[in-house]
Amino acid sequence: MQSHESVSPVRESPFVQENSTSRSAVIAAIIFIVAHLALLAGVTTPEKLYFDEVHYVPAARQMLEPVMPSPMLNPMHPPLAKQLIALSIRTLGDAPLGWRYPGVLFGSLSIVAMYLCGLALFAAQGPAVAAAMLAFFNQMVFVQSRIAMLDIFSLAFGLLATAAFLHGFRKPRPHLWFALAGLGFGLSAACKWSGLFALAVCIAIVAVIRLMQGWRTQFADSAAGDWYRPGLWPDFRLTHFAACFVAIPAFVYLATFVPLYGLSFPDLLEAQRRIFSDNTTTAIAGHTYMSSWPSWPFLVRPVWYLFDKVSDDRIAAVVFLGNPLVLWAALPALAVCLRDWVVTRRADAFLILSFYAGPYLAWALLPRTLGFLYYYLPAATLASLALVYVLRRGNSPRWLLWAFVAATAAGFAAMLPITVAIVGTSMDTFVRLMLFRSWI
Fold first, then answer.
1. DSSP run (H or E) holding 291
2. Around 396, how many Cα atoms within 13 Å sit in the side-chain half-sphere?
3. Which of 62, 80, 169, 426 meets the CB 3.0–4.6 Å disulfide criterion with 256?
4. Residue 430 burial by CB count (10 A; 0-12/13-18/19+): exposed, middle or buried?
C-alpha cells in the first residue's frame, strides 16, 4: 500500500503534528471563505419564498413570537434548523437574506467537513481539498445551501460528525472523537430525522468490530490497512459506546425541544410521536417531482425549485439535479471501493462504502412512497470520497485527479443558468440543458 493512501504508522514529533494541524486549519479557513462567498452571490434572488420555503420560513417566524401560537407550524420535523433560520431572521431581518443566510453558512461548513473527511481518510492535503471541491461542483450542496430548507443543516452537522468518527477510527483511544461524532449526529437529527442514518452506520460499524473481537477473529495475512484489527480501540468500553452514540446524541437532540416545550416530558414525548407518525406514514398522494430511491443515483428525476418567466424569452430557474459528471462517475468508483474492501480489506474503502450506503439505503426501509432527489444529498456528497479514492489509487498519475476536478468545474459552470436564479437563461438554453425527457 502506498504511503499517500494510508495513515502512516510512524509517530510524528509534536512539532510536526502542530505544524500539520495549523496548515490544515488555514486550508479549512480558506475553503470556508471561498465557499461562503460563492454561495452568497445572488442568494437573495428570488425575493419571494419558493418551493419548501413556504413551509419552513413561516414556522421560523412563528418561533419569534413572544408566545408560541397554536397550532404549531411544521411539527413534522425537529426544531433546530427552523430555530437557526429564526435567529437569522431576527438578526438580518425578515427578508430573503435573513431566510437564506443560515443555509449559506452551513453549506460552507459542509464543504469544510468534506475536506476534513478527506483528510481523515487519505492523510494528505491534496486529496482532501479535491474531495471538498468535488462536493462543491456536485451542485447538490450548492443549490441546497441557497434555499431556506432543513436539509443543508442536517447535512453539515452530519458531515462534521462523520469527519470526527473517521478521525477517531484508527486511533487507539477514539473516545473524544467518537463523543464529538455523537454530538454532531445529535444536532443533525435535531434538524431532520434523516440525520439518524449516519449515526446508525457508526453504531453498526462499532458493533460489528466489537462482535468480531469477541469471537477472536483474525485475518491470516493481516495488514495495517485492514478495516478490522483484533487490537482496535482496546480501552473503548461498552459504557463509552453508550455515552458516545446513545446518551450524547439523545441529550443534544432533546435539548433543542426545550425552548418550545420546556421540561414537560409528556409534551416532548408527544412531539416525537408526531414526528414519527408524519415521517413513517405511507403517502398516498403523488407529487410532480417525486422519485423513488433506486432512481436517485442515476439522476432520473430532478426537482424544480423555481421556474419563473422573467420576460418573453427569459426565465429564472433553480433545478435541484446534481452534476452528472460527478454522480454518474461515482457509481463505478463505488464499485471499485466494494471490490477493494472485499478483496484487500481496505479500511478507507470500507468506510467510504458504509457512509455512502447507510444514508442512501435507509430510505429503502421506510414505508413511504413519496420521495425526492434531495433525500439523496448526504450519500451523493460523500460519493465524492469514492472518486478521490479511485483517482488516487495505485499508480494513477496525480494530474488525473485534478483534470477530473477541472472537468466537473466546467460542468458546474455550464449548468449555472438552471441553478442560480439571478443568472437566468433563455428557453432554448434551458431545453438544451435538460438532457432527458424525464428532467422536464
1. none
2. 18
3. 80
4. middle
Q: State how far the Cα of 120 lies from the Cα of 161, in Å rounded to an integer.
A: 12
Distance of CA 402 to the CA centre of its chain: 23
* Residue among 49, 84, 255 at smallest CA distance from 154: 84
Dump pLDDT digits (tens) for 268-292. 999 999 999 887 765 555 667 889 9
> Is 124 exposed, middle or buried (CB count within 10 Å of its CB: 0-12, 13-18, 19+)?
middle
- Residues 152-179 have pLDDT tens digits of 999 999 999 999 999 999 999 999 999 9
Give Cα 279 distance to the centre of its chain.
19
Rg (CA), the chain: 22
- What's the pLDDT at 76? 92
What letter would DSSP give residue 72?
A: P
Which residue in this structure is represented by grid cell 453539515? 156
Mapped onto helix, strand or coil, the DSSP state of residue 368 is: coil
Triad 153, 337, 118: Cα angle to 5°: 45
**Dist. CA 124–CA 348, nearest whole Å:** 13
For the chain, which ranges sit under pLDDT 50? 1-16
Q: What is the DSSP secondary structure assignment for residue 94, as one 8-state letter? A: S
CA angle (141 as vertex; 179, 348 as ends), nearest 5: 50
Largest Cα–Cα separation, the chain: 72
For residue 77, how far is the Cα from the chain centroid? 18
Helix (H) / strand (E) element for 98: namely helix 96-122
Beta-bridged to residue 320, according to DSSP, are 303
Q: Structure pTM?
A: 0.94
